[in-house]
């Protein structure tokens, strides 16, 4: 891969998704490709990551969608909007949410107060203070009787009633009882569910059997590549799908494994480790972000950041741009230093 040797100015950056990375400048937000080329100019007020080839952007307070060439393919005319999932995206007009397809055609009318993303052909939505489930034609498949609802995964969806969560299937049948703490974004992955009970975290299977004891202070939202990070007594490590300790509890913070590597923090610095707990990218950085599309984002102290490959080689360089306040502070400091030097020279001359 060719490398863009000219650092890209940025104020903040995010990991690659679908070959595009989100960068923010003072002028706005835009996207670069894996060659370090600014494909979508930094002129938008806000944007999500690319999903199913399109990205939601906001301009002048309105939302619409761009393709990977930066072309506006769905007009920027909505009050709010979400990412595409299962071929549909939630959009908001006049305070109500509906769904459009990738041609911008309204597929489900504006009936809902809040929406989640479609998953497995179904979506949790909110109406009149309650949550239920609809299909891609807008038909109600689970009645609006829940206080909160998330996304379907492996045939189950987490729903909440009276501050307790359980799981139902696509027909609305209760599969796992309402005995768990209310938590955001809980879902099933690889047959396992990371969830809290009485303020302690553990893991259950798809029928509610306890797989990993509820002893942890924190746990990853889901397993990734067979492992999940957990926190015990203020330190992080990794456990496998049987709850066995695979990587010891020696880290200040961890992210889940992605593409074989996990972001790890020790003594206030970040780097990457592999599944054998070997340091692959030295723990010397101010912040790092998980590998995605073959690249990881690392940020040094000061103004430099880089997208690196798994060998630690720089593919794309970034340089943090100065804010107006920082430029003013630098000017004042420069003037002060120049004044001191001038006074010293004058004193020596006299």
Automatic annotation (TrEMBL):
InterPro entries: WG_beta_rep
Keyword field contains Endoplasmic reticulum: no
UniProt entry keywords in alphabetical sequence: Membrane, Transmembrane, Transmembrane helix
Pfam families documented for this protein: WG_beta_rep (PF14903)
SUPFAM superfamilies, sorted: Cell wall binding repeat (SSF69360)
Membrane spanning stretches: 328-349
Name the UniProt record assigns to this protein: WG repeat-containing protein
Species of origin: uncultured Dysgonomonas sp
């Amino acid at each position: 891969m060719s490398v863009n040797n000219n650092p890209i100015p940025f104020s903040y950056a995010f990991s690659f998704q679908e070959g595009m990375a989100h960068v923010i400048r003072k002028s706005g937000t835009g996207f670069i490709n894996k060659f370090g080329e600014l494909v979508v100019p930094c002129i938008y007020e806000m944007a999500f990551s690319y999903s199913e080839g399109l990205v939601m952007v906001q301009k002048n307070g309105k939302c619409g969608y761009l393709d990977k060439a930066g072309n506006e393919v769905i007009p920027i005319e909505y009050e709010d909007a979400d990412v595409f999932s299962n071929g549909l995206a939630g959009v908001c007009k006049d305070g109500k949410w509906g769904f459009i397809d990738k041609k911008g055609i309204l597929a489900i009318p504006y009936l809902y107060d809040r929406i989640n993303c479609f998953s497995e052909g179904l979506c949790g939505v909110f109406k009149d203070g309650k949550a239920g489930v609809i299909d891609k034609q807008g038909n109600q498949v689970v009645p609006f009787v829940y206080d909160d609802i998330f996304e379907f995964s492996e045939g189950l969806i987490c729903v909440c009633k009276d501050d307790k969560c359980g799981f139902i299937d696509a027909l609305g049948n209760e599969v796992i009882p309402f005995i768990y703490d209310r938590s955001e974004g809980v879902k099933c992955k690889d047959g396992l569910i990371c969830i809290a009970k009485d303020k302690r975290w553990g893991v259950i299977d798809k029928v509610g059997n306890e797989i990993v004891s509820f002893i942890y202070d924190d746990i990853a939202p889901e397993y990734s590549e067979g492992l999940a990070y957990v926190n015990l007594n203020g330190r992080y490590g990794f456990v496998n799908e049987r709850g066995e300790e695979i990587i010891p509890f020696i880290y200040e913070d961890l992210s889940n494994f992605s593409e074989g590597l996990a972001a790890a923090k020790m003594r206030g610095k970040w780097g990457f480790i592999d599944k054998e707990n070997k340091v692959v990218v030295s723990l010397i950085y101010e912040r790092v972000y998980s590998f995605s599309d073959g690249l990881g984002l690392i940020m040094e102290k000061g103004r430099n950041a880089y997208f690196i490959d798994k060998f630690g080689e720089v593919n794309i360089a970034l340089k943090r741009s100065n804010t107006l306040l920082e430029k003013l502070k630098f000017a004042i400091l420069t003037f002060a230093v120049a004044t001191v030097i001038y006074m010293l020279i004058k004193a020596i001359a006299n």
